[in-house]
Amino acid sequence: MIFLKLYRFFMGKIRISAQGVYVERLLNLCAHNGITVWGIKNREGKIVLWMLARDFFRLRPVIRGNDIRVHILKKRGWPFIFCRYRHRYGLFAGVVFFIVSLQLLSGFVWNIGISGNCNISDREILDACKEIGVFEGARTGKLDEQKLRLVLMSKVEGLAWAAINVEGCTVTIDVTEAEERESESTTPCNIVAAKSGIIRKIEVTDGKKVVKVDDFVAEGDLLVSGVMEYKDGSSAFVHSAGEIIAEVEEIYTVTVPLKQEIEVLSENVSRCYAISIFGLKIPLYFGDFKDDFISSNEKIMLKNSKNYLPIYFHKTGFKEIKKEFITLTEERAADIAREELDSRLKDVKIINKSEKIVQNQDSVSVICELITQRDIAKEEILLFGTTN
Amino acid sequence: MGKINKTSGVAGMLLSGAHIELFSNREAIIDGIRGVIEYNDCYVKLNVGKGTLDIFGNTLEISSLDADGLVISGKIEKIEFCL
Description:
Strand content of chain B: over 45%
Oligomer: heterodimer
CATH topology of the largest domain in chain A: Alpha-Beta Plaits
Distance between the termini of chain B: 24 Å
Largest sheet of chain B: 6 strands, antiparallel
Helix content of chain B: 10-25%
Number of domains of chain B: 1
Number of strands of chain A: 22
C-alpha cells in the first residue's frame, strides 16, 4: 500500500468533482478506458474522486458529449510541487549541492575507532595510522586494508595482531596486544663490584662465587664468575646472577646558590580557541604567542555513540612567565640541599651518616659522609677471543 | 478462455459471473462487473451481466475502480441479486 501511495505521489494525483444527468456513466467510461480512479464519494448528487494527473488529459475526450461537467478540486504530488518551485533556482542549486556534497564526503574517512588496546594508547595507534595514510579525511577508496594492517603491525611495537576495517566512512581498527614476557638474558657474564666496600651478604642464583662475606673488594673486582668448572674437567659459560650486599663509604656534596633565578607564572590567562576539521586546524584568534609564555592545551573531541568525529575544538590557555631573582637564607639553602640529598639516597640503607655544612661566599654546600649498604653487583659480559 | 466459459457446471458459472469477496460487512471486493448503474451513500447498483447486484448500507464509498472490478467500503447492510 505504501508503494502505491508513493507511486501516486510521484506521478501526481488530482481530486475532481463530476456532475451531470447520469454521472455514474463517468465511472463506467473511466473503467472501460483503463483510467483507474479511487476514493469515490457521492456528495449531494456530485461524484468526487481521485485520479492520476496524467489520466485527467485522457478523460476529456472520453466524457465529451455525455453532458458531464468536471472540476478540479485538489492537486497533490511531486509534479505540482516541482511546478510550484520551478523558478526557485537557488533551491535546485541547493539540492544539487547537497547531493554532490553527500556523494563527495561519503568517499572520505570521517572517524576512526580503536578497540582492543590496553597498554598501547589510542594516540600512539592513531599517530601510526596517520603515518601510513589512515586518518580523518583520507580517501576510503585508496585504503588497502590487508596491506595497511601489516604496515601498522610493523609500526606499532607490542602489537600481536591488527585489522583495519573500512565500513562506509568509518574506519575501525581492532588490535590485539602482544603479551609481555620477561626477557631472560642468556649471554654469559661475570659479576663485578660496582663500588669498593666490605661484603656483608651474598646471594648467588647462577654462576660461581669467588668472594666471601667480610671480604674487602675494590671497584671492578670479580665477585661471581660466569665460568663454571665441573669435577669431570668440563666447563660451561653461564649468565651469572645474584645480589652482593656490601658496606660502602660514600661522600655526597650538594651545593645550593644563595641567589637564584626563578620563573613565576602570572595570574592572567589568555585563552585561544581553534577548530580542526579533517585535520585542518583553523585558529579562531589573531596574533601569536612565543617565548615567555607557557601553554596548556585541551582538545575537545566530538563523539557520536561510538566513534570520534573528525571535528575537534582546541582550547589553549597561555600564561606569561616572569623571571625573578630571590636570595635564600643559609638555613633555607641548607634545607634545599638536604632535600635533594634525601631524594638521591631514597632507596639506600644508611648505616652511618655525618653531615657538614660549608658556607661559601654565594652558596651553601652540604657534605655528607655516609656508610651505606647497597647491592654492588654489576654484570660484565664475557668477551671471548679477547684478553678479557 | 472461450472454451472454459462454455464448460458446464460450477466452474463455468464461477468464471462467467461476478466474484465477490466480503470482509465482514465493512468491505466488498467485486470482480467481473460490467458497470456501475447507480451510486450514492447508501445504495450501489452494479451490472453483473445476467442481472444486477444491489448493495445497501451506510456511508458507502467506492475505494477503487478499474476495468477488472471495484472495492466498496462502508457499512454494508444487505446484498441482493436481481436476475
